[in-house]
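hey team, just a heads up i'm posting the complex here instead of the shared drive bc the drive is being weird again. everything in one block, sequence lines first with there labels, then the predicted structure for the whole assembly after. its two chains so it's a bit long, scroll down
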Amino acid sequence: MHELSLAENMLQIIEESAAEQGFIRVKTVWVEIGQLSCVEKDALRFCFSTVVDGTVAQQAVLEIIDIPGRCRCVQCGCEAAISTLYDACPNCGCYATDVIRGNEIRISEMEVE
Amino acid sequence: MCTTCGCGSDQVHVDGTILHQHDHDYSGSRRAHVHEHGVSDVGESRRVRIERAVLAKNDRYAQTNRQLLAEHGILMLNLVSSPGSGKTTLLVETIRALQSDLSIAVIEGDQQTDQDAMRVRATGVQALQINTGKGCHLDAHMVGHAIQRLDLQENSALFIENVGNLVCPAGFDLGEAHKVVILSVTEGEDKPLKYPDMFRAADLMLLNKCDLLPYLSFDVCRVIEYAHRVNPSLQIIQVSATLGTGMPAWFDWIKRSHHCAVKAKRAIVSTQHASD
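-- predicted structure starts here --
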């Protein structure tokens, strides 16, 4: 249940941004979650709704932006979509791949007032 | 996690005392929340770009830990596994074999109890217990506090026994030199595919309890193949912590890693001297 830690870290970023930018209410939070990032989205939604209680983000809607997984094959250099960390390169069948997208856990934007 | 200073929640205990106790200053956003009830619909909505990684703060703490350890030539290894893989037994046997040549300290992570720390202390080395309460993993901030509390020797080794969990600790960099994943042969060959993040994050896998193989249908070749699908560069050593089989290869791996840490410290020291 590391989603609770992630939700707490998200709230911390939101509160720091509120102090820096002077907003008093968060209406929407857009968070990018990579397909390969080991985050259970429903658990994150639940944890977020719990930790924001009594804060500027109490009524915030959490919008999750799915980032598909993408890798570069170490052997043939081809780039391809992957959905798990053990997908082989579709071009040459090699398992040695570098993940180039899909690991993200990042707050991208907020709607505030 | 505390939103004022970023410290762990009051659920986190280090050797029985709360990690941080301080008054929270609610002058920030929580006051704003009160404001929210008093003044409704005052502001205009606007979009603000944030572009911040959710674990950026943890990663900064991890980098601080890593730098501190590097300056003192200390090798930190983060041992991760599911509960019951034999981590503590393996750690105790490792300490017994190496403690005459190497100064060793241990950070134990568990949700509750200090039983593992007591087992480690029985070997004579320092061990600090972190109880995470409801938390399912250690983070870099807790480990930073533990490093400060331990009396770590120059050129020593620091082992972290993480909370038994094959999922959550994978995403949290603690500042370790390597994650070492321990899998026991009683767990099933498909664990690397079921929990790929941990096997991807690790540099070494210890396949433990190999003395039980004659009594099980566990396929060693298959688990190695699965582990290498997830992480082709993962090194794998087959061991039995209780019988000692394969353990010398693990000890040699530690000695090589420790040698790298000491060498890296020399490089840092000579760079500092050159710039003086």
